[in-house]
Amino acid sequence: MMPREDSKKKPRRSKDTDLIAVIKAGDTPSKSDRSDRSLSSPEYSINPEIEGIRLSIEAERAAELAEKEKEAENAANEILNLVAAAELDRPLAEIGYLFSHQKEAVKWLLAHRTGGIYRGGILADDMGLGKTLSALVAARAMAKIHGCPIFVICPASLKDNWLREAAKAGAAIEVFSWAKMPKALESQKYLVIAMKPTMHRMKRASELKN
After folding, report:
1. Mean pLDDT over the full length of the chain
2. What pTM was computed for the model?
3. Does the residue 47 lie in any domain?
4. Residue 194: which CATH number?
5. What is the spatial distance between Cα 146 and Cα 131, in angstroms, rounded to a whole number?
6. Residue pair 149/76 in contact by the 8 Å Cβ criterion
7. Do the beta carbons of residue 125 and residue 102 sit within 8 Å?
8. d(Cα 141, Cα 28) in Å, to the nearest integer?
9. Mean pLDDT by 10-residue block, N- to C-terminus, for the chain (210 residues)?
10. Is 116 contained in some domain?
11. Does 100 reside within a domain?
12. Does residue 171 fall inside a structural domain?
């Protein structure tokens, strides 16, 4: 019985033989060739100008973010300093301590700022809840930190009342008739406490006059 041809064992080629054949044929580039080819490929090339612009933009964004964080930190510290200067837990002359809602009103007034400028706030509590005292305590803190005088705009009939309340709050205020306000008022830093109806009437009268 003759053996089948396909059952004959084919001679085995060693791995070294295959490797030599491939190298001779030049089919497999060396590692350095592959590296050079990938670096020179347009797909992987880096434009120095574009890369420089990207890094510059990232640096600007990081600087802007750091500046905003610093501004926020400074604003928070300023508010904390103002609240501390208000001494909300210190008893006031004749009346004792502020009520909790008055303390919250003072904190709100001191934190009411936009873009680093105090643009004022309106206390709209009901009559008899101590709006005058809350406003004066907040004003006293701002005057202490910023060194600005406090001016109160109110009807002439309420001047004495404001002076009494200011004495209780320990706030030094100056009371003037609107027509006799000092000329230097517009050119210096100051804090104004105004009753809205009175302020509105005076503003309207000034507009009509001009």
Report:
1. 73
2. 0.60
3. no
4. 3.40.50
5. 22
6. no
7. no
8. 81
9. 52 51 50 51 64 82 89 83 90 87 90 65 80 90 85 82 90 72 58 68 63
10. yes
11. yes
12. yes
